[in-house]
Amino acid sequence: MYCRIVPVGILVLTMFCFPAVSHSQEKEEISVPVKVTPVKRGEISQELSLTADVGPQSSVTIVPKVGGTLEEIRVKLGDMVKKGEVIAKIEDREYLLGVKQAEAAFSAAQTQWNLVKATAQTEFLSNLQQGEAALKMAQANLEKIELRNHPHSKEVLYHG
């Protein structure tokens, strides 16, 4: 019997304690006094004077691929530019002159190469013909010497 009364007593005690705790934890509503006025038209005059240093969000150092004198600047200080946009033009007279000189040197070298190639082909054919003639002479001399040194030719000479 004692075993049944203790759990029932604990249950009853818990039921009475929790409602008391929950009431004490409730927050009171805090009221803030507010001044209300009707809406009307009018001027708002409020000025604010500040001192500040203003700078770009990001800046980039620009270095040209070649040196020279600027012929034209196509943007103003502070303008926004995009990647790949031409912002200045460098005088190109000297570079165009250099290109023309390089083209002329290339053309002269190509002409020289064609001349050397043609000369080499002519000389090659000439040397080839001279070599063939020398080979034929050497072969004729060899046959002549072989004929002299042939055993039958010696017998003919001795018997003759």
UniProtKB/TrEMBL annotation:
Output the Gene Ontology cellular-component terms: cell envelope
Where does the CzcB-like barrel-sandwich hybrid domain start and stop, copy by copy?
A: 60-111
Q: Which UniProt keywords apply?
A: Coiled coil
Specify one Pfam family. BSH_CzcB
- Main localization, broad class: other
Q: Where is the signal peptide?
A: none
Which InterPro entries does the entry link to?
BSH_CzcB-like (IPR058647), UPF0194_transport (IPR050465)
**Compartments (UniProt record):** Cell envelope
Q: Which PANTHER family does UniProt cross-reference here?
A: EFFLUX SYSTEM COMPONENT YKNX-RELATED (PTHR32347)
Entry protein name: CzcB-like barrel-sandwich hybrid domain-containing protein
* Source organism per UniProt: marine sediment metagenome
